[in-house]
Write a structure and sequence with these properties.
mainly alpha
């Protein structure tokens, strides 16, 4: 529909430009919001990974189920304690050896 005067034609153009600018501003606003959301998600992901890394989540630990059970003896102290008793008396009283007189091989 043609405008009746120059003034009405300019007014019609201003309204059309305002609508166009409003549409473009809405697009840009939504785009910036999506970019900001993506940035926040990236920061949250990095902070989560840093927290998990410091907490030790990514360390490879040996599973306890894979340890060999065939090498374990029934009494683990049996290998440490001598059964003949000769070393027990020598280590049980260390002052007994120092009170004896030194032999020829010890004095040299």
């Amino acid at each position: 529909m043609p405008a009746k005067s120059k003034h009405m034609e300019q007014r019609k153009q201003r309204i059309a430009n305002a609508k166009k600018n409003a549409r473009l501003a809405g697009k840009l606003r939504r785009r910036r919001q999506l970019q900001a959301l993506g940035g926040l998600l990236a920061v949250a992901a990095v902070l989560t990974l840093v927290y998990l890394w410091q907490d030790g989540f990514f360390k490879d630990e040996e599973p306890a189920a894979e340890e060999p059970t065939s090498e374990i003896t029934e009494d683990p102290l049996a290998t440490e304690v001598p059964t003949d008793g000769t070393e027990e008396t020598a280590t049980a009283d260390p002052t007994a050896e120092s009170s004896e007189a030194p032999t020829d091989t010890e004095t040299e």
